[in-house]
Amino acid sequence: MDYSQLTKLTHVELFSGIGSATIAAKQAKLPIETIATSEICRHAEAIRAQLVDDEAPNFGDITDFSAWFQDEKLLNADIVSAGFPCQSFSLLGKQLGWNCKNVQRVTNAIRSFVQQHRPLYLILENVTAIVNKRHAKATRAYLDSFDGYSFDIIQDNPFDRGHLQSRGRVYVVMSRDDVPEWTIDTSKFEVIERQTWNDVRDKRPNKNPIKGEYMVVNAKRVHSSTSPHIILEPNSMKMNCWTRGAVDAHCNRFSYPRNGEGFRSPSVVEALKVFGHKKTPRGLTTKEDISRSSFFRAIGNSWHIGSAKEVFRQFPIEQLNEWKLEQYLSNFIKLDTCDRMSHTNRAKMIQSLMSFDQLMTTEHGTPRRLTCTTSHKFDMKNGRKIETQGLYLSPANEADHALFSINTCPSSGDCKFGCLNTSGRMALSTHAIVRREKTWAFYGWPRLFLLRLLKEIYFNAAKAHRRGDKYQYRMNGTSDIMWERFIYIDLFCASINGMDQFYDYTKHSKLRITNKSGWPLCYHLTFSVDEKKTSKKNALAYLAMGFSVAIVMKDDEKNRLLSLNHHRIIDGDLSDHRPQDPKGSIVLLRTKGALRTQDTDFVKSFDWVL
Predict the structure, then answer these.
(1) CA-to-CA distance for 322 and 103, rounded, in angstroms?
(2) What pTM was estimated for this model as a whole?
């Protein structure tokens, strides 16, 4: 799966109006996709179509459950927005508040939608009156009724932060209990340079009645108002809300721009600018039978983009992306196995002595990287490069502690004398400490460890995929853990872009590859022959299954075999990348470390191999 599919935010816009929530979220640069809207006003819907190019289906009346509540596409949406009707709370209304039957009907519908579809987040918008002394208790009771959600409430007036329009609003953000919490800090809201009417006014407004941009207003009507800020001069710094159903109606809260010696209504373009819109098309009111009255009714009920954008800017996008990726990667982890392992006495002892974060943080305070080494191979079949990386834990008993023991190579023998941890930089004590801490993290917190590991593999595979390369991973660089018990390997490889397969060396018996559930097709194994009597029988079983077999030899004996030029005799010292070997290969390795001086049956002769 591509990361963009995980990070894209699905959005359901209830009471969508002219699309303010979608527009504000996009101005906040959220990767949002509105997948459905709910709006009963056809004029508002038509205006939204001019301002938002998403073709999101409008399901209509939110209270008509049977029409659209069963749509599975809406399940677990990332964000649901709902600017429910404010008339019963507004000072211009009858102040019925939560006692209004229509408010009860639509807000109950919001709650029903949330309970049925379980979105990750919900954002509500309304007038500040819903949190005043008269309505605050009932508002709180309504928000508390959303089971499994926490909420944060803030108030904002864009005028207080430099905008022209004075429009006090309340925003409620709700977070499902299992996701990163969305909270709002109003002190972080952007304050702009004081806006004036001159900044938004149309210097050449189109008064053509066909295009319906504005109309001249009777001076007596304007001067009959008792409200301040009723006349907008070029240097005016404040205006009232445009809330009436018709632009030319008698209203003592409407602001009128000066027009020569008289006054006029604001134009559609000016109205959109005042509400913070960047897209301000002319001639909007000539389409879909949208009149000035219907436009101003719609925009009067809409959100101020400047305010809503600041709320969306504090959406926990990075934390949510992390959460979603972990949820996705959990599908590839055998959680039951991890949970059993994390409840063993050894795991509990590790958990009591140290924390996962301690073990997975470097001495410099940065997250510890699990993946080490990077190399590129050449795939002779199709010419694509193969990037390989690996994980290095403590081999054998290197991770033993005074209070518990760990053996990552239960079938090990004399191979420990030539293990990679005995050569080069890996022999340094600092490297041994890092290996131990990674190993303790796995045995103490297997689920967290695998999430961290698969996350690294996921991103590295994606990088290889973008380059056109394949990606393969060696899980046991210095260990011999049966990772097929912990990871759905084939499912992971089939699902992750760029991921080709896993590969490892192993000394486990033939029973490992003959289990009843079958062997993962995307896990290439090379059996390591050792000094044990059962080693030959196991090696033959691995060869019969099409796996490779690795044999350690002294240089002269190894070179004698290579001189036979058999296509299935491979010089393993040229590369440790075994998946490209022919099936059933004999991989020859020279002695390393202490094995060069040890007298042991682990090192095989020319005759034994033949």
Answers:
(1) 37
(2) 0.85
